[in-house]
Amino acid sequence: MAWIIAIIVGGIIGWLASLVMNRDASMGIFWNIVVGIVGSFIGRFIGSLIGVGSTLTEFSIPGLLMSLVGAIVLLGIANLIQRGRVR
Length: 87
Fold this sequence. Notes:
Helix content is 74%, strand content 0%. It is mostly helical.
């Protein structure tokens, strides 16, 4: 059951990040899920550096926000590599 929740939440986080970074038209549901899940790991790492977020077993608002930040960072890096600039 945890995998299903991770996929759903990852898809939502990836979709929100793609809206913020103006990449929604170029990404499908699969890539939204991938960006959300990978962004969650990046956000958790960033959160651990600054003391914000939660553990892997906890579901919290700060954890979701850090996942969104991580997904936005991931899309910013992807924009930088693909287009040579961060939008």
